[in-house]
Amino acid sequence: MTLQYHVSDPVLHCIGSLGSPELPTYRLPFPCCAAAPQGWKQEAKTPVAIAKMWPTDHQLDSSSFHHYFLLFVCAGGFVSSHHLQGHQVLFFGFGWLFFMRQLFKDYEVRQYVVQVVFSVTFAFSCTMFELIIFEILGVLNSSSRYFHWKLNLYVILLLLVFMVPFYIGYFVVSNIRLLHRKRLFFACLVWLTFMYFFWKLGDPFPILSPKHGILSIEQLISRVGVIGVTLMALLSGFGAVNCPYTYMSYFLRNVTDADILALERRLLQTMDMIISKKKRIAVAHRTMFQRGEVHNKPTGFWGMIKSVTTSAPGSENLSLIQQEVDALEELSRQLFLETADLHATKERIEYSITFQGKYFNFLGYFFSIYCVWKIFMATINIVFDRVGKTDPVTRGIEITVNYLGIQFDFFYAISSSKSSNVIVLLLAQIMGMYFVSSVLLIRMSMPLEYRTIITEVLGELQFNFYHRWFDVIFLVSALSSILFLYLAHKQAPEKHMAL
Amino acid sequence: MAALDRVKVLVLGDSGVGKSSLVHLLCQNQVLGNPSWTVGCSVDVRIHDYKEGTPEEKTYYTELWDVGGSVGSASSVKSTRAVFYNSVNGIILVHDLTNKKSSQNLYRWSLEALNRDVVPTGVLVTNGDYDREQFADNQIPLLVIGTKLDQIPEAKRNEVLTRTAFLAEDFNAEEINLDCTNPRYLAAGSSNAVKLSRFFDKVIEKRYFLRDGNQIPGFSDRKRFGGGTLKNLHYD
């Protein structure tokens, strides 16, 4: 099994890639404050980079439309920056830009709906955080803040519970050829199923006091919160373990050039064998065709019965060769993946010798201590029935590093032009739920006077429950990822020794 | 079995443009029923009659190497892919007519295959205004194929076709536009089939024949693969 470890800095990367995407991009992890200025300089907008952003003759159409639209939006946001709506527009612009430059760099976007939905979700999620900051700083008067909170929450819930799941269902259904005709109908069906399970989610969890009605905002928020907190904890747990594993060079397997060459030779040998077998099949087909026998695959029930009793000896031989070819093709795929893995490890070894690599190695040790401490604290919280009191800053760093890094790599790994719409919508959904539950969790760490507005807006949810739930899932996730990585790490060198 | 001479042609293009369907159509004359993701490289063999219909007709095996992946892959994947670019005799560049990005990426694909000695740094020297000089002295014949023609509505067809004509001109190559799920685009005698045949003839000529028409004397394939210490594994 192969695991790809990419350390990518989402925030710096996406801001830096506002310049030309063709400039070399350096991958830096987020919490390296000392290295951040360096990263900024390398990815700064040079005049050449800006010039490259403008469309050339070949590209005059939708991409230039995007550029102009974006500029207009950002300008508009800037101008009206005194109002919250102005900021929202700015965030919308960022979301759009991020979408175009980062997520969909290699694809052409045909469905504007997806892009709009993603940008809107992003904008409103960011606005929620901004409102918390405003709360603390005391910007705007409290009644207008309250109004904006309510508005924001309603819109986000509308998006997360109604719009985005519906669109996800719609795009998934349109990918399946069978259901393509009646896709609207099936999309509604999928959405109704989602709503049913979403509602059922509330039963086993003690999240509400019974005095709330059916369609109140607390019902929806609590469910969204549970899902979001689970996701956050899962990703944090995995990230907490994966992060030091990636940074530290202690875990790097030793790979020499000879290993790579040997594997490549094996790969080419296998390809050669496949070719010679396919040649035989092709020649056999051709001679049969020329002789006038047409090689029909047995179709239908009677065809299969007939082929059992009367089969030409040539075709039996051919099917045997075909099976061998299939097996060899599978082998060639495995060899290809292993070779790619070895190349990646070799690059990481080369990188770890450089100064940057050593710096991140040190960070890795630091992080591993931090992660062990986190796991320990989670255990203590559960065993001694405490509620965690980590500060928002730590949690903020954790969230950004673990969540965003993993999300993007996962996205790159499984995206294709068919499923890219679905993935982006899933990303929007997860991002929205994540932000909502972050607000819930942050509430606990805020001083009493700032808690009031959140409590007022969100009603009386059982906040303690969320923290406990987070700790449990975090622990489970961290422990299982330790196990998982340990097994993967153990398995790999044994495979190479067998070569 | 007669030892027919071999010729290697790469099929390059972005993920999802239809390379596997195309290769299946070219080699088996059948439409591929269940296209799935290509991991690594998949090879197929097409038996081609060089100079069909003339007294010098000869049959050659053309290997079509369908290399999977995208131009934005990690550099480790690119280094692994580079092993397939050895001793290439021809390149077929495939792009999706409904996806403009795939056409633009063809420049990067061709650079990757032709300059495989250069370590991919991610620094793209050309960005649309590329250097025609690079392709002028290129000895390897190229062919540009656009797929999913049936998905372009009639109204936009002209616009798309002019764009692809520019593209093919940039590469100094012929172009074919078709739909891989419909074999009639490559029916015998159609202009597409003629262009295809001409392309393969050109590839074979460059590989086996000198300018004055004499065949290059006996070139064993044994030296081609990694270091020259391999035995040639042809099962006869």
UniProtKB/TrEMBL annotation, chain A:
Matches recorded under Pfam families: ABA_GPCR, GPHR_N
Keyword Transmembrane helix assigned: yes
Example GO BP: intracellular pH reduction
Domain Abscisic acid G-protein coupled receptor-like, residue spans: 352-401, 412-490
Spans through the membrane: 68-100, 112-133, 153-172, 184-201, 221-243, 362-384, 396-415, 422-446, 466-487
Subcellular compartments: Membrane
Reactions this protein catalyses: fluoride(in) = fluoride(out); bromide(in) = bromide(out); iodide(out) = iodide(in)
Molecular function in Gene Ontology: voltage-gated monoatomic anion channel activity
Main location: membrane
Domain Golgi pH regulator conserved: 216-281
Coiled coil, from the record: none
PANTHER family reported in the protein's UniProt record: G-PROTEIN COUPLED RECEPTOR 89-RELATED, GOLGI PH REGULATOR A-RELATED
Homology family: Belongs to the Golgi pH regulator (TC 1.A.38) family.
Protein name: G protein-coupled receptor 89B
Source species of the chain: Crocodylus porosus
Automatic annotation (TrEMBL), chain B:
Gene3D superfamilies cross-referenced by the UniProt entry: P-loop containing nucleotide triphosphate hydrolases
The organism's place on the tree of life at top rank: Eukaryota
Sorted UniProt keywords: GTP-binding, Nucleotide-binding
PROSITE patterns documented for this protein: RAB (PS51419), SIGMA54_INTERACT_1 (PS00675)
Function noted in UniProt: Required for KRAS signaling regulation and modulation of cell proliferation. Regulator of KRAS prenylation, and probably prenylation of other small GTPases. Required for lymphocyte development and function. Not required for myeloid cell development.
Record-linked PANTHER family: DRAB5-RELATED
Protein name from the UniProt record: Rab-like protein 3
Gene symbol of the encoding locus: RABL3
